[in-house]
Amino acid sequence: MSTSTTSVSETRRFESRVPPTTPTEMAATESVNGDLQQEVNELQTDDGIRAAAREQLGYQQVNERRETIVGVPDLPTDLPDGWPYGPVEQIINLRAAAVPAGG
What we know:
This protein is an all-alpha fold. It has two domains: 8-57; 71-103, no CATH class. The protein is built from four helices and no strands. The protein has helices spanning 8-16, 23-43, 46-57, 85-98. The model has no long low-confidence stretch (mean pLDDT 80).
Protein backbone atom coordinates (compact mmCIF):
# COMPACT_ATOMS: atom_id res chain seq x y z
CA MET A 1 0.00 0.00 0.00
CA SER A 2 1.40 3.39 -0.89
CA THR A 3 1.86 6.08 1.67
CA SER A 4 0.58 9.55 1.05
CA THR A 5 2.74 12.56 1.72
CA THR A 6 -0.34 14.58 2.69
CA SER A 7 -1.14 14.54 6.37
CA VAL A 8 -4.64 14.43 7.84
CA SER A 9 -4.26 18.00 9.06
CA GLU A 10 -3.39 19.13 5.51
CA THR A 11 -6.42 17.29 4.17
CA ARG A 12 -8.69 18.88 6.75
CA ARG A 13 -7.22 22.26 5.96
CA PHE A 14 -8.32 21.84 2.36
CA GLU A 15 -11.78 20.61 3.41
CA SER A 16 -12.42 23.47 5.83
CA ARG A 17 -11.50 26.28 3.43
CA VAL A 18 -13.51 27.87 0.71
CA PRO A 19 -13.18 26.10 -2.64
CA PRO A 20 -9.79 26.58 -4.30
CA THR A 21 -9.61 29.53 -6.62
CA THR A 22 -6.05 29.68 -7.91
CA PRO A 23 -4.47 27.08 -10.19
CA THR A 24 -1.96 26.22 -7.44
CA GLU A 25 -4.73 25.59 -4.90
CA MET A 26 -6.67 23.57 -7.45
CA ALA A 27 -3.65 21.41 -8.27
CA ALA A 28 -2.95 20.82 -4.56
CA THR A 29 -6.59 19.87 -3.94
CA GLU A 30 -6.61 17.51 -6.91
CA SER A 31 -3.38 15.93 -5.68
CA VAL A 32 -4.83 15.35 -2.22
CA ASN A 33 -8.04 13.96 -3.69
CA GLY A 34 -6.06 11.66 -5.97
CA ASP A 35 -4.00 10.33 -3.07
CA LEU A 36 -7.10 9.73 -0.98
CA GLN A 37 -8.89 8.01 -3.86
CA GLN A 38 -5.89 5.74 -4.43
CA GLU A 39 -5.93 4.79 -0.73
CA VAL A 40 -9.69 4.09 -0.90
CA ASN A 41 -9.19 1.93 -3.99
CA GLU A 42 -6.43 -0.06 -2.29
CA LEU A 43 -8.55 -0.57 0.83
CA GLN A 44 -11.34 -2.06 -1.29
CA THR A 45 -9.14 -5.06 -2.17
CA ASP A 46 -8.29 -8.05 0.03
CA ASP A 47 -4.57 -7.35 -0.32
CA GLY A 48 -5.10 -3.70 0.62
CA ILE A 49 -7.10 -4.64 3.70
CA ARG A 50 -4.42 -7.12 4.78
CA ALA A 51 -1.66 -4.57 4.24
CA ALA A 52 -3.51 -1.91 6.23
CA ALA A 53 -4.25 -4.35 9.07
CA ARG A 54 -0.59 -5.39 9.14
CA GLU A 55 0.82 -1.84 9.03
CA GLN A 56 -1.68 0.01 11.20
CA LEU A 57 -2.90 -2.66 13.63
CA GLY A 58 0.03 -5.07 13.75
CA TYR A 59 -2.00 -8.06 12.53
CA GLN A 60 -0.14 -11.10 11.24
CA GLN A 61 -0.96 -14.37 9.51
CA VAL A 62 -1.38 -17.56 11.55
CA ASN A 63 1.92 -19.00 10.32
CA GLU A 64 3.93 -15.80 10.93
CA ARG A 65 5.99 -14.85 13.94
CA ARG A 66 6.59 -11.22 14.84
CA GLU A 67 10.01 -10.22 16.07
CA THR A 68 10.79 -6.74 17.29
CA ILE A 69 14.33 -5.66 16.63
CA VAL A 70 15.68 -2.78 18.66
CA GLY A 71 19.08 -1.22 18.84
CA VAL A 72 21.58 -2.49 21.36
CA PRO A 73 21.75 -0.12 24.34
CA ASP A 74 25.04 1.45 25.32
CA LEU A 75 26.98 -0.65 27.79
CA PRO A 76 27.37 0.72 31.30
CA THR A 77 30.78 2.22 31.94
CA ASP A 78 30.45 2.77 35.68
CA LEU A 79 31.22 -0.78 36.84
CA PRO A 80 32.37 -1.48 40.41
CA ASP A 81 36.07 -1.93 41.10
CA GLY A 82 37.54 -5.40 41.49
CA TRP A 83 37.05 -8.84 40.09
CA PRO A 84 35.22 -9.72 37.79
CA TYR A 85 34.57 -6.19 36.68
CA GLY A 86 38.17 -5.21 35.91
CA PRO A 87 38.50 -7.52 32.90
CA VAL A 88 34.97 -6.70 31.76
CA GLU A 89 35.75 -2.99 31.91
CA GLN A 90 38.91 -3.57 29.84
CA ILE A 91 36.90 -5.43 27.20
CA ILE A 92 34.32 -2.63 27.09
CA ASN A 93 37.05 -0.02 26.69
CA LEU A 94 38.73 -1.98 23.89
CA ARG A 95 35.44 -2.44 22.01
CA ALA A 96 34.48 1.19 22.49
CA ALA A 97 37.85 2.28 21.08
CA ALA A 98 37.37 0.00 18.04
CA VAL A 99 33.96 1.44 17.15
CA PRO A 100 33.98 4.78 15.32
CA ALA A 101 32.02 7.59 16.96
CA GLY A 102 28.29 7.45 16.20
CA GLY A 103 28.36 3.82 15.07
